[in-house]
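Tokens in:
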């Protein structure tokens, strides 16, 4: 028998009927979440749920009703509670719906957990709509907004204004900004702007911790003024931040302007930041608010993310929930998310969350455009950004057709009919036949004499100028040469690398290292840093940062890419060291470069990164006292190299330690007897059965 449980009415919570379509559920959910974003309601008692808890319940309702299996299970439980007859499936497994919904048999419900969280190995849901400051992704746009906020406070400007479209992260910026402020700031954060002038003053005073229950605006302002003077004497600053400011009434905005009049002879006592949607500009454009407009000294607009920022945003949120490497988004999948979300963070969350849910149902951790499009179709109502191909078909093709039709009309109606206008009423081919050209005289084109009355003059032949190549003196990106370049001067190397950005030089260098690991060149087309992580994971490659000399790189014997510091503040670049033969190195960038090792000596920062593979998935390190089959594997391979003698055992004992120290000393690495990362790289390289690339040519 099913134990009585207290399930919330998800249909009533979202405001939809039991037979509602997915589109109606999506619309109801978006409407409910938008209310949460702008709601100023706080829990009045310990028993009343917090805003986060209410959002979690709404998310749970949405997840349940949007998933066919969960919705059927939920409906089955509701039917049982009402005493209705349940389906045969429910009779055969009466605990099935409860278990599927995450409800324990004792009627208690565990803490909300997203359905795909365990599958992807997330510590929590990565694309929740709650504006949690720990998920703040500081794109260049967000950094600029924060910089303007900080600058405005430091310079003690009266008014600041930041606008941005719905879902671009304004509230997230506010909360992150408030969390990072120093203790010498007093903040009044107002996120429910649907108030009148009196309520505004009451809210500000209450938020600042001073008496705010009076119904007299004068008394409230007097109390606030005294507080501001006291705080200024202490060296503290007072800031009022109003979120969703586009909903403020003009009279309330005028009251804010009057508050900005609270000042000393030298400085303002209070600073006010207005943060809202673009409609805020329309409100401030009214004639009655022109004095307020003049006092807004700092203005900024928070724009949607571009494609690369969208890619970084998704990866950042996955990293926060420890999801790096657990799920992989292809380049095309991210581009599809960007097109349909239009770079708006909230919509990126909505699309990506549904995408992960569909990937979970398909038991795959690789996100493709097909899965994203299924999610977009499931959400419904999303209009993608136009691609260049869309614009071509919409603009260029119709223009070409129109031009073609115009030319046809001109040719048909306007141009003369040569057949009728030719001498004697004959057409052009007949005239040519009657007056053939005499080609017997070189360089002259003269028609033969005929009995025809009309002889056309010989055409003028203009000499054709030989083709010349134009040289563009503008700096252009390097084009790879067919063979290796030879460089013998450090200044030429500096000039070569200065034409690349830091990221470009790094990606070009990494391509050479990946090629040494036999990565398919097609996988490296249009390579970016996110793709690099996916390629490394696909080929089980790890990176090791090494600080040392060329001798250490030779001892490890793996290709590496080097960090190069260009002189005269030209920045840092990367260069791949592919192979070494004697005193000459073969390097990789846009070109394959051959040059003496001494060339890079003054430019290399002594930092290098090696890509390597742990073929046997061994523990991070093995040392004296370790017991396991890995010790036997190590002893066998040390025996093959002539370093271990004796009987193999599960214990990493003194003989194994001595053998490891001999291996380390003979290859110029730290001889501590511990089988760590350096020793792994060395051993895999020395054993012929593992396909590792070699730095030093034999």
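Residues out:
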């Amino acid at each position: 028998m099913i134990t009585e449980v207290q399930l919330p009415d998800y249909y009533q919570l979202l405001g939809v009927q039991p037979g509602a379509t997915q589109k109606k559920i999506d619309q109801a959910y978006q409407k409910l979440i938008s209310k949460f974003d702008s709601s100023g309601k706080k829990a009045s008692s310990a028993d009343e749920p917090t805003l986060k808890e209410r959002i979690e319940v709404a998310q749970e309702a949405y997840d349940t009703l949007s998933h066919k299996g969960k919705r059927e299970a939920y409906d089955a439980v509701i039917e049982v509670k009402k005493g209705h007859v349940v389906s045969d499936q429910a009779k055969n497994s009466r605990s099935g719906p409860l278990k599927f919904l995450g409800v324990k048999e004792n009627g208690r419900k565990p803490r909300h957990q997203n359905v795909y969280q365990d599958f992807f190995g997330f510590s929590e849901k990565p694309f929740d709509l709650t504006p949690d400051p720990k998920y703040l992704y500081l794109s260049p746009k967000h950094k600029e907004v924060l910089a303007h906020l900080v600058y405005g406070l430091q310079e003690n400007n009266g008014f600041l204004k930041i606008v941005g479209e719905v879902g671009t992260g304004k509230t997230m910026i506010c909360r992150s900004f408030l969390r990072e402020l120093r203790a010498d700031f007093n903040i009044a954060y107002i996120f429910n702007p649907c108030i009148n002038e009196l309520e505004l003053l009451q809210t500000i005073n209450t938020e600042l911790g001073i008496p705010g229950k009076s119904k007299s605006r004068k008394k409230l302002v007097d109390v606030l003024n005294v507080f501001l003077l006291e705080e200024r004497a202490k060296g503290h600053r007072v800031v009022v931040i109003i979120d969703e400011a586009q909903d403020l009434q003009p009279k309330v905005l005028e009251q804010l302007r009057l508050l900005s009049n609270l000042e000393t002879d030298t400085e303002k006592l209070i600073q006010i930041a207005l943060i809202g949607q673009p409609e805020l500009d329309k409100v401030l454009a009214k004639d009655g608010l022109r004095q307020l407009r003049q006092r807004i000294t700092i203005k900024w607009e928070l724009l949607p993310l571009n494609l690369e920022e969208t890619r970084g945003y998704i990866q950042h949120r996955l990293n926060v929930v420890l999801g790096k490497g657990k799920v992989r988004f292809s380049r095309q999948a991210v581009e599809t998310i960007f097109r349909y979300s239009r770079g708006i963070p909230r919509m990126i969350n909505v699309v990506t969350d549904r995408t992960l849910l569909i990937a979970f149902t398909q038991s795959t951790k690789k996100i493709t455009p097909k899965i994203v499009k299924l999610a977009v179709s499931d959400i419904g109502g999303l209009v993608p950004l136009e691609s260049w191909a869309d614009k071509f078909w919409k603009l260029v093709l119709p223009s070409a057709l129109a031009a073609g039709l115009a030319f046809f009309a001109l040719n048909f109606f306007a141009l003369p009919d040569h057949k009728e206008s030719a001498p004697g009423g004959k057409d052009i081919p007949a005239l040519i036949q009657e007056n053939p050209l005499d080609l017997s005289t070189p360089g002259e084109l003269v028609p033969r004499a005929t009995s025809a009355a009309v002889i056309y003059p010989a055409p003028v032949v203009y000499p054709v100028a030989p083709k010349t190549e134009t040289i563009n003196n503008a700096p252009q990106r390097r084009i790879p040469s067919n063979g290796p370049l030879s460089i013998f001067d450090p200044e030429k190397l500096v000039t070569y690398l200065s034409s690349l950005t830091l990221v470009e030089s790094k990606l070009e260098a990494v391509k050479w290292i990946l090629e040494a690991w036999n990565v398919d060149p097609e996988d490296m087309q249009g390579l970016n840093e996110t793709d690099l992580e996916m390629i490394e994971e696909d080929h089980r490659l790890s990176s090791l940062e090494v600080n040392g000399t060329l001798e250490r790189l030779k001892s490890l014997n793996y290709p590496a890419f080097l960090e190069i510091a260009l002189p005269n503040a030209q920045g840092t670049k990367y260069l791949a060291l592919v192979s070494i033969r004697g005193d000459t190195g073969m390097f990789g960038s846009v070109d394959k470069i051959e040059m003496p090792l001494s060339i890079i000596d003054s430019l290399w920062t002594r930092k290098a990164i090696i890509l390597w593979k742990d073929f046997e998935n061994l523990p991070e390190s093995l040392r004296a006292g370790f017991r396991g089959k890995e010790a036997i594997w190590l002893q066998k391979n040390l025996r093959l190299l002539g370093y271990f003698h004796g009987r193999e055992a599960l214990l990493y004992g003194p003989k194994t330690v001595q053998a490891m120290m001999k291996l380390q000393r003979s290859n110029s690495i730290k001889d501590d007897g511990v089988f760590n990362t350096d020793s792994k790289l060395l051993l895999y390289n020395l054993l012929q059965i593992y396909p590792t690339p070699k730095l030093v040519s034999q």
